[in-house]
Design goal:
single chain, mainly beta, outer membrane lipoprotein receptor (LolB), chain A, 13-stranded antiparallel beta sheet, two-stranded antiparallel ribbon
Length: 268
């Protein structure tokens, strides 16, 4: 009988060899995005970049911080699975993701530096290289948790504005800066009045809609209203979704040595 940790390792190594677990070959069901029409004057890249930068700061602080994330994934059958993580992040370029539940997988840690990502397993001497686009759990890719840096990963332009519930939103198209990012294209709704993210649609290289994320339950954390719940809905497999709840966010001194392979075993 395989132990949970061994099953995790087998699945992880298979995923690393197989590549992107969210690729468009994963299912025969597809949904192709309709062509988007640019709004007049939508070439103001500086304006678009500023909108994305401000939205990034709403989602997470610029300083080093720690936050706990609970992810509940529900499938077609309605059965729910919960996993919990602790995230340490500094400057959107350095992140550590620690599994805290289930207990059988505690001690497994992901390290991201720039766009390079590894996973460290307690009983394996060498780290395993991962891609940001590989599936972490449910509808959540590694990059969704380890790298929330739209500004650094995408080139932005404003497509249009929309009125939603009496509020004006900028709708932006984000195009991948290179092939190393989690998604090739994102359509992103950001409220104009306060830079609050509202919704994002994530697309594959062939312009196929993979999933939609909504940002909600805004609460004050570290002096700013931030989305504490993300709902990711699969566009390819009807009825499947993951809900991410963020809690206990706090600033934390994180020296550069924390984000090194040798230091990870010291983390608590």
């Amino acid at each position: 009988m395989k132990t949970p940790g061994l099953r995790f390792l087998i699945v992880l190594l298979f995923a690393a060899l197989a590549g992107n677990a969210q690729s468009e070959d994963a299912t025969t069901v597809s949904r192709t995005a309709p062509p988007l029409q640019d709004a007049p004057g939508a070439t103001d890249d500086a304006k678009a970049r500023k909108i994305v930068e401000d939205a990034d700061r709403v989602r997470f602080p610029e300083e080093g911080f720690q936050v706990d994330v609970a992810i509940v994934t529900t499938g077609k059958d309605g059965e729910a699975e919960e996993r919990k993580y602790r995230v340490l992040s500094k400057g959107n370029e350095n992140t550590v993701v620690m599994i805290t539940e289930p207990a059988s997988e505690r001690g497994q840690i992901m390290l991201m530096k720039g766009r390079d990502l590894w996973v460290f397993l307690p009983n394996v001497s060498q780290p395993v290289r991962l891609s940001l686009s590989q599936r972490l759990t449910g509808e959540v890719a590694n990059g969704d948790l380890a790298r929330a840096n739209f500004t650094g990963d995408y080139k932005a332009k404003v497509l249009r504005t929309e009125m939603i519930d009496g509020e004006k939103y900028n709708v932006l198209e984000l195009t991948a800066a290179d092939r190393g990012v989690a998604y090739q294209r994102v359509v992103y709704w950001v409220r104009e009045s306060d830079s609050a993210p509202y919704k994002a649609q994530f697309y594959s290289m062939s312009n196929r809609l993979l999933k939609t994320c909504t940002y909600g339950k805004y609460e004050k954390m570290l002096g700013k209203l931030r989305p504490t719940q993300l709902v990711m809905t699969d566009a390819l497999r009807e009825g499947e979704r993951s809900v991410l709840d963020y809690s206990k966010m706090k600033l934390r001194e994180l020296p550069d040595k924390v984000f090194t392979k040798d230091y990870l075993k010291k983390l608590e």
